[in-house]
Protein 1
Amino acid sequence: MAAPLLEVRDLVVEFPGRRGTLRALDKVSLDIAPGEVLGMVGESGAGKSMTGAAIIGLLEPPGRIAGGSITLGGQRIDNLSRRQMQRIRGKRIGAIFQDPLTTLNPLYTVGDQLTETMRTHLDIDAADARRRAVGWLEAVGIPAAADRVMAYPHQFSGGMRQRVVIALALCAEPELVVADEPTTALDVSVQAQVIALLRRLTREKGTSVMLITHDMGVIAETADRVAVMYAGRVAEIGPVKSVVKAAAHPYSAGLMASIPPLSHRVDRLPQIDGAMPRLNAIPQGCAYNPRCPHVFDRCRVERPELLPAVETRAACWLFDSHAPRERAHV
Amino acid sequence: MSAIARAWDSDLAYSFRRSPTAVLSAIVALICIVGAVAAPVLAPYNPFDLASLDLMDAFNPPAFMPEGSLAHPIGTDDQGRDVLSAIMYGARMSLFVGVSATAFSLLLGVLLGLLAGYAGGTIDAVLMRIADVQLTFPNILIALLVDGVARAALPRDLHDQIAVYVVIFAIGISDWPRFARTVRGSAMVERNKEYVLAARVIGIGPARIMLTHVLPNVLGPLLVLATLNLGLAIISEATLSFLGVGLPQTQPSLGTLIRVGNDFLFSGEWWITVFPGVALIAMVLSVNLLGDWLRDALNPRLR
Amino acid sequence: MSEAKALEVPIFEARDLSRHFDVSKPALQRLLSREGRRTLRAVDGVSFAIPRGTTFSLVGESGCGKSTVARLAVGLYPPSGGAALFEGQELAEARKSVAQRRRMGMIFQDPYASLNPRWRVSDIVAEPLRAFGIAEGAAALREKAGALLRQVGLSPADGGRYPHEFSGGQRQRISIARALSSNPDFLVCDEPTSALDVSVQAQILNLMKGLQRDLGLTYLFISHNLAVVRQVSDRVGVMYLGRIVEAAPAETLFTVPRHPYTRALMEAIPDLDMAGRERQPVAGEVPSPIDPPSGCTFNPRCPLANGRCRAERPALIAARGTPETLVACHAVEEGRDGFEGRAAA
């Protein structure tokens, strides 16, 4: 594999609060290669959006990076000032959020917003930026782009607005796009169009994508590799096919199994009992141990690192080849 | 955990302990309130006891001035009344009018606001237009109007007897739209929440839903508004009394004291008007700062 | 009502049910801009019946009117046209009697909005008990609430806590306990799992299926998720812009979908088995229900649309080839949908 574009190493994000400090991300490590789409999945509160926010430097206060590093193309970006980070955002990292209205400024036309972004980050003149803005709207499939460039965000439908956001995220030709639930607010039929678009454009430009979503279907058809998060940690990371079809970590396996199939009816869906622990009550050892069907003594004491599993890397003691398994029962 | 320990441990109490402004204003407000409410017990003299007044004591300056004496720590007025005692009794009056007027507008505003917010349609439109019209007049004008009507309609001694209630009504009636608007807004939001729908599916009636489901959920903003309004109501009363259309001299409030003392300001007896003024500012400012803190503390976005 | 008759009469029936909303601007503005009244036909002539002990699902995209049907079915809105019948009786009439009203309940989508944040869980669960006079006195209410909480997989001790102390899935269990407390026969479930994480969704779906088996419940199930609908339904109606475009037994609908919209919807769903392959997006977006297209409302997005589809509204009739399926499509009626060819292949 080529040198990764993005390297996250042992990233720790903490929220200081009155009842002690909450650890929202606990030693998260992952890489994204140039042109690769990395899917991030997990339940709400697992830390997938938090990881994205840390990378684009938009952690909500009082959240802060308390350890580890984020490197983009060899440059550390986790310790930059707000000003420096602002320059990186847009130029080198684009962002797409669930609600397009949070990204688009309602007071400016979409054309103004595109030209503004391009002129801030690229060395081009006004006329060129204008021309490119129309080109981008065409590229994301806005009909009559030459006229629509003068329209305001509220004059677009939800699906069209998300297309504009994609154009805005990509127009400064960033190396990485962080897309946080880009299709969750859209209907299924429109979702497919937007995902196809995002995939086509990023492939054409060779842009890397971090695709954060709770929708395994979207991940399955879009991502090259996928990271499964649980309680602020990466539980498993590997090629998308392996994780979807042959997950090694008991949590990812349970998560995949609990997705209701469209192709047939089952009498009882496989379910994971209980719920993900709150950040202030993460158990010792493996965070998943109280819900895990394969739990043994070591899981309750010692936290597993990512270990090579069959086709993926999983944070699970079942895959520790050095120590004999001391399973109580399976 | 006991109820007190739980309250001490709550997020609100924690945010209070962390805010020096809140603690300081709470202390000042507490001194003002205790001094006012317990005036008959705590005040060194009874300013209404004519027998104890002696004109020989008139215009005594505060104790820290050359001719002052510790008997009257902040001096006496033209009648020989102890200014400190007069302030405590006056603050009592101001506080009574302020609290009563606020309670009156709170009650009226909550009732009309809930009605408008939940019923919607024509009832809402009519009530809110009335509120809109009323909001276009300065509060003090409405209070002056009510007071003027009461003066013209009632015989003089009857008016003096019930002057306090006229003032309470005048201030209360001019402040209800603010409460009504807040409650209406919240009621319209809560009305469409699924827990209200759940109650409707069960068949719970609108009045009961309003009181048991919606009202408890709008109490937070109401509490903030009531606190801020209390300060304003005290100011309104002081303004009316200062203009001579508020409380009669037989029942002086801080505003009355300031007006009476104002006559002596330029003849050198400044303490007669300045100390009631300081007391008024301390009371209103501390209550307002508490209200501001409460608003921020209850706002989940700022937490 | 005799036993035999009770079995025949569906527990809930919608007959040509409609609900229109007035979305006009205020009267003065309308006068100034010389605009007429504008009506949103959220539900426009929907008919279906739910036999006792079964699950009927309505599926469709946002704005198709499925949630409005849910609210019509428990009497939160009066119908603008047609009728909603509870055991053959007009719903508004049935809801006047406490004995009938307690037999229906609703489970909502958002577990964060469906529980009053200022109430203790035991009070929330006991609200119907109190309202219907099923249990009285603090001790009896607490005991009954505790039993209900146990029934949905929580502990009776949870009754003393407040909603914010629970996770989304736990809150949905509380919501179910509240709906069960009046011992109902008919539950309307409006997207009960769409706000939940997938592993929790499985828990709630299993719980709901178990309760249906144990208590003989009848569900009207509203969802936008076809896979979820497949798991719970006996019969499914697909809605588009306020109308049912296809209704069929679940197995039939998912194996041989007939309406072009149903087929497009299924093809648009990302399937986990085809990791890495393209899905077929439906062209265009859902039009505004205030100003729907003439004729068949799906015609602007439909690959099979012709002049008749643009002019004439299709009726919901038995489909050629799969008579169990009711479908509102001229192409299917005329045999233009290529069904015979597909069936042969």
Protein 2
Amino acid sequence: MAENLIEARKITKVYPDGTQALFEVDFAVQAGEVHGLLGENGAGKSTLTKILSGLLSPTSGTILWKGKKVRFGSPREALKAGIGMVHQHFALVGPYTGLENIALGAEGVRILGPVRTRWIGKKVENIMDRSGLRVPLDVPVEDLPVGVQQRLEILKVLVREVELLILDEPTAVLTPQEVDELFSVLRSLASLGKSVVLITHKLREVLEVTDRVTVLRHGKLVTVRPTRETSLEELASSMVGREMPRMRGRTNRSGGKEVLRVENLVVPGVGGKPAVRGVSFSVHEGEILGVAGVQGNGQTELVEAMVGLRPWTGKVELNGKSLAGLGPAQVAALGLAHIPEDRQGMGLILPFSVAENAVLGKLRPFTDRVGGLRWRKIFRSTADLIQRFSVQTSGPRAQARSLSGGNQQRLVVGRELSKAPELLIANQPTRGLDIAATHYIRETLLKLRDEGLALLLISADLDEIFELSDRVAVMYNGTFTGISPVEKLDRERVGLLMGGLTFEEARG
Amino acid sequence: MRVVLESLGALVLGLVIGALIMAVWGRDPWASYRALFEGAWGNTRALASSVSRSLPLVLTGLTFAIGVRAGLFNIGAQGQMIIGAIVGLSSALLALPAGFKLPVAMVLSALAGVLWALPVALLKLLRGVSEVISTIMLNWVAHWLALYLVVRKLSDPVRGERTFQVPVGMRFPLIQGELTWALVVSLLAALFLYWLLWYHAKGYEIRAAGLNPKAATTAGISVRRSILLAILLGGACAAWAGAIQVLGRFPYAITSDLAILGSLGFDGIAVALIGRNHPLGVLAGAFFFGTLATGAARMGLRGIPIDMIQIIQGVIVVSMAIPEAFRLLRVKKTSVPTKGKS
Amino acid sequence: MNILIDVLPVALRAMVPITLAAVGEIFTERAGVVNIGLEGIMTLSAFIAGVGSWATRDPWLGVLAGLATGAVLGLVHGFISVCLRGNQVVSGVGINLLGMGAVGFGAWALWGAKSPMLDHSFWVPGISLWGVNFSPFVIMTPVVVAFTWLVLHKTALGLRVRAVGEAPVAADVVGIHVNRLRLWATVYGGALGGLAGAFLSLDWLHTISPTLPAGRGFIALANVVFSKLNPFLALVGGFLFGYFDALAIHLASVAGFGGALPYQFIRTIPYLVTLVVVALAIGRARFPAALGQPYRRE
């Protein structure tokens, strides 16, 4: 067995808010290997690698670097020792050229002297020759495609002579061609004796490029295997677990009225590249359509387009009325309610009181002829909402900021439901909530469905998708990879779809 | 409660630094401040003067306050105030029945303030020009325009150092000492904005847009319309500050160096910040600065220039920039977050 | 038409404060901090420069005092905005008010008048070149512009300063002290504002007053927008704004011209020009991505 370059023993991490992210996880990377770190959202992959790269310190456990016990206080120290991390959000200076970005922080001997561009340039050329990592160095990086920016990030780390390179979900933003190029670079780095940790939830990538794979689930180590001894199915089941979730989708869907109809919806994303690329679906009365998928595959843009916050093309009809060209107020007036994914940034105005938040976006019934606010009615309605949705608060006058996350969400849900909507879009409705609040929100959504409401649920949490949905769509790279009744699916198959396989492939 | 403490803290800091400067300069700060407060509150006449001097400050304070509520940094009150004063005075030239003169003057000056504020809104909403730059430029344009009118068109044929006086029937009647019924204008404006912001849908929208434009937009509120409304209302308030300064204070005219208008517009910034941009807080803040202004005259007799007041104001505003510092002190005490309960 | 040429020498002087303050602010904003307190910095620096010149009988020591005053006010603003993560705009406005008040008070305390004239002995001596008398500041300004541009765009320090304003995270991960750099960039900007103030009192207007800069601090802010944060363009902008400033002053002082257009109207020209230029220029300006945002590590 090759020697371990880095070894983490019994790493436990409890965040200050009490969340247990990792529990006695062992993790080791050998010199010259590409090591896959696999797991769902929230499995603890990021926490683990943040600990290895000095961004976080573990609650307990030890890290051995080249056999010696170490403790990194900052990313700088880790970088100095030889551990470099490429984050999902690049740390690049947009208007700077590639060379300037690489030179930053290592420019020269004298601070008022010129930047040693030639010296650094030579060094970079040298590394580019050896690794096959080619990047134009004289173009502002903001003009480069994302894939090239990523290579630049890798180069930036390599120039600092690291031995362990950690890549956090590097393929999330890449085209298939770019992924191929990245993988060949990773292989050549490994052949140069560098070690690479590849964080991913995409099974194929693990099989394609890694030597060994570590699987995490719910903050615990599930398995460590040489990649060639494992299979797609085995990895899928160890990633998502074998236990069957409670499925409460209704099987007797006897064709409720169609409430929402979406045809060939295209939503532009940043930089003109479409974030949603031609999605079609419909939602019926008394039905929950669940949209599963890893975050960042176009879900945010899909929702924001439908509620009138983003321009789009295609066809969206609510009860036969087109939503084309309508703003948020008009869309809401037609009966579309919306639980935003970012409840603190979009769903609530935190410095406002609970009562003020309870009427956000539905002020009309609470004003008199001249537009004056009928506070008594607002307070009465808020008290009612607080009671009906069991919002724990000192009262309608309390600041929304003072509520816990779960109670903030109850407030948002209660408000949106009190608008008596035709369709409710719930975007990540339980993200970041504790168990009690999560349970409450899910029960509420199910009850609404039984009462005949049409619901569109967007969630990255597979448990939630399975527990609530009648039909499930999986979103990947801006499109739906298939819509199917929930009883015809299992976790493994949805996991494969989320990982980018087509419906036919996943049917296997 | 915390916000009141922050305001008081800034206020005390301003007074302490003022005292330090006086001490370094070899004056007795204690005696000076005593003179100040005696001069401002010592008897009914003094108190009436303090209230009277706070009236325009209430209005310019409201201008800034409603701007902040909409997420703006509107420092255009100075120019709008000057325009309001000029138009208020010029209304005397209209041939109107006696009883109508004052109301018409007030309406016209408010309209003028709105018009003077309009380019600020348009430049911001259409061209993205920061209101900080556009208001300052318009302030200076208003300043020179007013100088022209005061000297060339409105000057008193007999007394060159000021304009003609507002005819007696057009003045705000006196209540007590210097204090006139302009009091009602400032009080009503503050109460109206208080009502608007907390008891009316439009004000609710302004506050929502200022605190979280994204959430407001998501909820279907037009942030742009709120900004427009806040700028125009601010223009009307500031114009009234100028109008009551001319129609409600001796010499019922504008001095040809505009000294009678002073820096009422800029002083409103400090008033609003001290009042936490709340209309009722603005009333309190204006009273504090009205007190300083009145008391400064008495302090002036002891050889302390009234600019001392402006230093105190500056210190107060600078220290209001750092609520974070106050917060840091608080966080240290409660650094352990309480576990969320649902 | 002669008037347009007669104005040139005045325009060169009028260029100085608007350019110096703008170039300093460019450096500050490149690092990610907005300082709208330039007007107050210029006001107080002009006064302290006058005091320094009066106390030491050496105008150049006065200039130095003005520079130091600007640097100290920059430090105060930097401390509040960078270290305490305070509201940069409120702090800037506070500094403006403070400058106005301190000068009114100080001038009265020292000389018993709010706007004392400074007599000849206070003035910075001119430099004679080819038989023409130049203000040393007129020569100094392009030098400062070139120096600032060189530092910003040709040195390791400049690479770091601009990185800190664009992407503080990217700078932080490679070991650059974000807040320390921002603080010093604010001090540099303040110091140049101080130099501009010293010029106003000791070399150009020869007086001290609470409103001495008459909005030039804010015109300098407009010049920053106009220049797209490029020091050399700020020199061009400074000349442009300065030209209208000078034109207004010149026209206003030409006897007889007042009949055609009142002098007070002429004085509004620089402000109106500024408004128009900013409205037209703003679409093209690209500000640092992290401008005005305090940095705190996650």
